[in-house]
Amino acid sequence: MSAAESALLPETLPIIDLGALGTEAGDAAIARQLDAAFGGIGFAYFANTPVTAAQQAAIFAASRRFHALPEAEKRAIDMNGFHRGYMAPKTSVIATSSVARVTKPNYSESFMFMHEVPPEDPRFGLPLQGPNQWPEPLPDFRAEVLAYQAAMEDFCRRLLRPIALALNLPGDYLLPWFEKPTTFLRLLHYPPQPPDSADDEFGSAPHTDYGFITVLVQDMSGGLEVRRADGVWLKATPIPGSFVVNVGDMLARWTNGRWQSTPHRVKNLSGGDRYSCPYFFDMDMGSEVACLPSCTDAANPPRHPPVLYGDYLLERLNKNYAYRQEA
User: Fold this and answer.
1) Does the reported pTM lie above 0.90?
2) Distances in Å between the alpha carbon of 281 and those of 166, 215, 229, 233, 244?
3) Which domains does the chain possess?
4) CA angle 81-83-86, nearest 5°?
5) What is the DSSP secondary-structure string of 184-231?
6) CA 241/CA 239 separation, integer angstroms
7) For residues 193 and 266, is the Cβ–Cβ distance under 8 A?
8) Where is the Fe2OG dioxygenase domain (predicted)?
9) Each residue of 219-242: pLDDT tens digit?
10) DSSP 294
């Protein structure tokens, strides 16, 4: 990339106000901003969302209570084969990074919750379709997590309309892929890293997300960085009450590269603990992802063959998480 082209790239992530989400004019305006942001750097701040400051504060409080538990009580719900439970520090290595050769595990710990799959559900027992786990010492934790999950799923479903409009599709076009969405809520804790930590030591090594969109709420510690097309890393400086939202691999693939799944990383050099709560909203595991009709023509043929989202997801999880390699 030339110096002139680099000079045209953003210096900060764009901010999209969602105060008018759900209105005809509001969704149209949001759609235009989404296309500019996601087609440019693949990231944006979302402000004035339907998820309230109180709901955000509640999930942070739940996360801090969980991570304050003794290690033995957290390890009692270690990750199960359905990708749900506690992930201890240094148990994931981003082997699939597209911008770095990652050899060291992430210096972070997390609790992973996914969509509920009760035993009577026909999907029960299929890959990633099983029970969540809950810490016995925190009896209110389950209700707090479920309340936040419900708010986030409702919010993301409301985003499907402006996303479709941004891609020159009917507003209801994407709904069939999300009748039973695959969702992840990850409550992350990043211990402080030494200021002189090695360049290849990360709380979360450079990576892209696997699915449709990621909606992240972060505390005020900082540490998240986003890679521009020219290789420059931009700081995603926390903005109180806002979310940082990014395109995942499946959405980039769906749009034939019109939108970018952008590498990002975390280094917690704040001197204190960092907490973040990313919510991943993805299509049904059995959904086929093929180039959207509005994103291809004779001059721009599909760049990728169709793929089942579940196959892509499992391939990434199997490479990046130690517990899956030991099974």
Assistant:
1) yes
2) 18, 8, 25, 25, 14
3) 10-326 (2.60.120.330)
4) 105
5) EEEEEEEPPPPTT--TT--SEEEE--SSSEEEEEE-TT--EEEE-TTS
6) 6
7) no
8) 181-283
9) 999 999 999 988 999 999 999 999
10) G
